[in-house]
Amino acid sequence: MQLNQDSALQKLVSMGIDDMPVMEYVPKSCKLDSDWFQKYSRLRSEFLLSLSDSIEEIVFMNLPQDEFTNLIMGKSLPDNLSIRFRIPLIWGGDLDINNMFLCWTFPHSFNLDKFIIEQSDARTVYLPNPEKKVYLTTHSGGGGDGGNASSDRLTEAVFNNFMSGRGNE
C-alpha cells in the first residue's frame, strides 16, 4: 500500500499512535551478514546502557523498581518492552544505536509492525521516527494524577544510587 505522509500519519492515529513522527524512506534491498545477530546482541546491550540519559521517559513507564533498575543498568529488558529499528535492517538500516528506540510491545510495537508490513510493496515507505530513544505517547508521557510522592522519592533514590555506581566507570 502506497501512503503519503498525511495518510501515514492518519493510519497511525487510527492505531492509537497519534504523535509518532514519520520519516519518508526508499527501501533498499540488502543482505544481512551471517553474524548480524551476534552484532545485534552486543548493540542491544549498548543500547540498554545508553538509556541512562532517558531516565525521565522511563520513569513515566511506571515499571516496578527491579525492572526499572535492571533496564537502566543494561541488565535486562522488561516484559512488554521492545527495542525497534527506525529503519529495518532488511531495508538498509544500520546496526547502530541511533537507529533504535524503545517502546511498549503491546500495543505500540505490535501496531508499528502492522503499519510497516502494510507498506511492504510500496516504493516509498513512512517509518516511525520518534524524537527520543524511548517512545511514549503523549497520553502516557504526561505523568500520573499526582499524590505519589513516595514513588517519586523511590525513583530518585534508585537513580542516585545508579549514577553513583556508574561514576567509577
Count of helices?
6
| Content-based structural category | alpha+beta
* Rg estimate, integer Å: 17 Å
The rounded distance between the terminal residues' Cα atoms is 49 Å
Oligomer: single chain
The main sheet comes to: 2 strands, antiparallel
When the domains are counted, the total is: 1
Instruction: Provide the helix percentage.
Output: 40-55%
- Total beta strands: 4
* Series of secondary-structure elements, N-terminal to C-terminal: HEHHHEEHEH
Major β-sheet strand ordering? 1-4
What does this structure look like?
The chain is α+β, with helices and mostly antiparallel strands. It has 6 helices and 4 strands. It is globular. The chain has one domain (5-162). 41% of the residues lie in helices and 11% in strands. The strands form 2 sheets. The chain has a two-stranded antiparallel sheet. Strands 2-3 form a two-stranded antiparallel sheet.
